Amino acid sequence: MITVKNAESHLKVKIGVDTGDIKKVWETFKDFCKEPVEGEEDTEILVESGVYDFTGEELFHLDFVRQFTVYEENEYSHMEQLHCECLFKPIDEVKNFELLEWSMDYDHIDDFFHHIENLQEFKMSLTLKPLKTEIYQEEV
């Protein structure tokens, strides 16, 4: 069973070392989002993108996020986000693509995925080769 504590390592194993194939990363992330995680009441998925200079260099960020609400002894403790973040050169075709979409705004997770996959800029971003893909989990 996947737990919040082992979710990051589980996703890294599923994606493997071929993080340059964004279509594969996305499909693997989607499959991972449908796997149950111990203690998770609702699956909360976020897809966000935009050009940011968090690293000191302007890069296009395409970030797939699964958010976990953590409870200890049935009391809310904190939230954690597992990121699968792809970084690209900010080429003209995607540099103005800003996205902040939560799965909770849709009746079913497949409706959410369908919406994301039909965005023209998202389709374009899946054809790009990332400079780097990072998988990491953090408390928020």
Largest sheet features: 5 strands, antiparallel
Low-pLDDT sequence parts: none
Q: Strand arrangement, largest sheet?
A: 4-1-2-3-5
- What is the overall silhouette? globular
Order of helices and strands: HHEEEEHHE
Work out the helix count: 4
Task: Please report which band the strand proportion falls in: under 5%, 5-15%, 15-25%, 25-35%, 35-45% or over 45%.
Answer: 35-45%
Helical residues, percent: 25-40%
Distance from N terminus to C terminus (CA atoms, Å) equals 23 Å
Structural class: alpha+beta
Using only CA atoms, what is the Rg?
15 Å
Overall residue-averaged pLDDT value:
93
- DSSP, total strands: 5
Task: Please sum up the structure shown.
By secondary structure, the chain is α+β, with helices and mostly antiparallel strands. It is built from 4 helices and 5 strands; from the N terminus they run H-H-E-E-E-E-H-H-E.
Task: Describe how the helices and strands are arranged.
Layout: H1 7-15, H2 22-33, E1 44-52, E2 59-72, E3 75-88, E4 99-102, H3 109-117, H4 120-125, E5 132-139
Antiparallel strand pairs: 1-2, 1-4, 2-3, 3-5
